[in-house]
């Protein structure tokens, strides 16, 4: 640098690109740390903002996890559709047993399992809680049942197979456990879409909440913003710490949302397992995948940035036209 | 250094702050812009710092026509100016050092270079021992000197001051003016808007006098 007393014009402020870059990076670091410090300096009011963000995001994410679990459950059933074939009561067990081979040879049948009336009664006694009531019966009221697994899982071919089985003289009644699954899946589709729209609205709420917090921050730093602009600070320079504030709000809110979702999952897992046990299902409730958690955090951070961007582009322009 | 060509500034409410004002300031000159409040002194400084744009006419600074500078370029233009305000516009949440460093920080100067230049500016204004203090703990005269240090820290070729002695007693006012004269002596062009006529006459620099937005003396 030349003698400090020598005045220089525009050339005095030509700064090397490398300097500019390192100053830019250091201002990023400075802004990031400073804005986090400002949030920590007012923990209560900022915790409020983060909590609002956290709760707003935890709601749709929890619903999403529940819906995913129901979907997994129904998908499980859907993948292995079964047709229960109830035989007529008057068919002797010997001919009932023989029917198995016949069923096996029907096209589209993958496997056949015979459930005798005795074993069905035993199962009832074990799991159904009907033990006492069953003692009152003189004879076994249950029919012989074949559980037929079709090769193809799609609804049309299973329905066709069921009709074919119904036509057999020994068969009293055929039950497909497919119809209600289809209905459930349709309901799930609606629920999923609802969660999506609901989540979208809540995300919008998050953006506006953070935009409002940033607007307050801008009001609080009005003096500073005016002075920085007067001494040649660019809009980007002024905006940077505010964008970092938004980013932190989003990220901290996202972390709170994650904690809330994990709490919800924790509270629901035990009763869900009990329910699964009642249905003798080996179903294991799914938690939140790490990838989903990361998506949650990045979305919340992005929403924070968007809120800050919204607030700064609206309110910094107003300060722009003002003079001290 | 500065050229006003038939500049008129009319505000949206119809008030004409400047009417057809033309004048010239040479490079290295020191001038006073005088007049009662509302005469248009501040408007001239606002046009020079691009806080306002003229309704008619042209302002040229260091060969640059200010009407060709778009909003995005304004920060870069301002980095070549030094500005001193009546209420000095210091930030009370940071030290004297950080206040003076601000113009260099926004310009992306390296931290080591900032420290060197800030200390040089503070030294020049006799504030080196106060660099860690908060502005609120300083006297009015010291606060104004911090404002001047901030204005000169980026070594501007043009120094603009709007009523820099407005809140100071005569002794401090004379001291502040001496500082401006020092900078002028080493080649800085200085424009001071003031209504302190006694001080102006004593210092004997050219006076550009305004009355109700019209230039009446000193073009």
Explain what this protein looks like in three dimensions.
By secondary structure, chain A is of the alpha+beta class. Helices cover 71% and strands 7% of the residues of chain A. Chain A has helices at 17-41, 43-79, 93-105, 117-127, 131-135, 155-166, 179-220, 222-230, 235-278, 290-321, and strands at 83-87, 109-115, 145-150, 171-176. A four-stranded antiparallel beta sheet of chain A has the order 2-3-1-4. The two termini of chain A are 33 Å apart. Chain B is globular and about 45 Å long. The longest helix of chain B is centred in the last third of the chain and has 16 residues, at 170-185. Chain B has seven helices and ten strands. In chain B, strands 6-7-8-3-9-10 form a six-stranded mixed beta sheet, with helices on both faces. A four-stranded antiparallel beta sheet of chain B has the order 2-1-4-5, with helices on one face. Chain B has 219 residues and is α/β, with parallel strands linked by helices. The chains are: A alpha+beta (324), B alpha/beta (219).
Topology record:
The complex is a heterodimer of chains A (324) and B (219).
Chain A: H1 17-41, H2 43-79, E1 83-87, H3 93-105, E2 109-115, H4 117-127, H5 131-135, E3 145-150, H6 155-166, E4 171-176, H7 179-220, H8 222-230, H9 235-278, H10 290-321
Antiparallel strand pairs in A: 1-3, 1-4, 2-3
Helix pairs in contact in A: 1-9, 2-7, 2-9, 7-9, 7-10, 9-10
Chain B: E1 2-10, E2 16-25, E3 30-34, H1 41-48, E4 56-61, E5 64-65, H2 74-78, E6 81-84, H3 96-106, H4 111-124, H5 140-152, E7 158-162, H6 170-185, E8 189-193, H7 197-203, E9 206-211, E10 214-217
Helix pairs in contact in B: 3-4, 3-5, 4-5
């Amino acid at each position: 640098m030349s003698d400090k007393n020598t005045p220089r014009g525009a050339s005095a402020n030509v700064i090397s690109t490398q300097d500019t870059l390192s100053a830019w990076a250091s201002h990023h670091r400075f802004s990031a740390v400073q804005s986090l410090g400002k949030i920590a300096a007012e923990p209560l009011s900022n915790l409020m903002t983060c909590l609002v963000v956290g709760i707003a995001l935890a709601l749709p994410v929890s619903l999403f996890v529940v819906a995913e679990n129901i979907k997994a459950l129904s998908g499980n059933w859907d993948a292995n559709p079964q047709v229960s074939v109830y035989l007529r009561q008057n068919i002797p067990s010997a001919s009932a047993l023989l029917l198995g081979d016949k069923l096996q040879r029907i096209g589209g049948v993958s496997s056949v399992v015979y459930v005798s009336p005795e074993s069905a009664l035993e199962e009832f006694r074990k799991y159904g809680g009907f033990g006492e009531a069953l003692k009152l019966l003189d004879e076994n009221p249950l029919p012989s049942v074949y559980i037929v697994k079709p090769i193809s899982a799609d609804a049309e071919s299973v329905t066709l197979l069921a009709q074919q089985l119904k036509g057999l003289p020994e068969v009293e009644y055929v039950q497909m456990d497919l119809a209600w699954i289809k209905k459930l899946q349709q309901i799930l589709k609606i629920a999923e879409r609802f969660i999506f729209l609901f989540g979208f609205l809540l995300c919008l709420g998050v953006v506006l909440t953070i935009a409002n917090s940033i607007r307050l921050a801008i009001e609080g730093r009005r003096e500073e913003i005016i002075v920085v602009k007067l001494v040649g600070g660019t809009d980007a320079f002024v905006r940077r710490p505010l964008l970092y504030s938004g980013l932190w709000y989003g990220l901290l809110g996202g972390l709170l949302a994650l904690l809330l979702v994990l709490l919800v999952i924790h509270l629901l897992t035990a009763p869900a397992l009990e329910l699964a046990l009642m249905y003798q299902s080996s179903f294991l409730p799914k938690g939140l995948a790490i990838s989903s958690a990361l998506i949650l955090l990045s979305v919340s951070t992005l929403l924070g940035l968007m809120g800050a961007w919204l607030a700064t582009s609206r309110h910094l322009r107003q300060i722009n036209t003002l003079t001290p | 250094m500065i050229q006003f060509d038939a500049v008129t500034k009319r505000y949206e409410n119809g008030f004409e702050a400047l009417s057809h004002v033309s004048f010239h300031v040479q490079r290295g000159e020191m001038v006073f812009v005088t007049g009662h409040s509302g005469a248009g002194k501040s408007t001239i400084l606002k046009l020079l710092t691009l806080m306002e744009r003229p309704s008619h006419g042209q302002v040229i600074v260091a060969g640059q026509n200010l009407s060709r500078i778009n909003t995005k370029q304004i920060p870069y233009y301002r980095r070549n100016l030094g500005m001193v305000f009546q209420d000095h516009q210091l930030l009370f949440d940071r030290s004297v050092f950080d206040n003076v460093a601000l113009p260099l920080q926004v310009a992306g100067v390296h931290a080591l270079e900032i420290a060197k230049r800030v200390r040089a500016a503070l030294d020049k204004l006799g504030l080196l021992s106060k660099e860690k203090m908060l502005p609120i703990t300083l006297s009015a005269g010291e606060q104004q000197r911090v404002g001047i240090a901030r204005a000169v820290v980026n070594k501007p070729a043009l120094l603009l001051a709007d009523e820099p002695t407005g809140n100071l007693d005569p002794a401090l006012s004379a001291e502040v003016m001496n500082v401006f004269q020092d900078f002028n002596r080493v080649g800085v062009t200085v424009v001071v808007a003031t209504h302190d006529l006694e001080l102006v006459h004593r210092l004997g620099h050219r006076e550009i006098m305004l009355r109700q937005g019209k230039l009446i003396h000193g073009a």
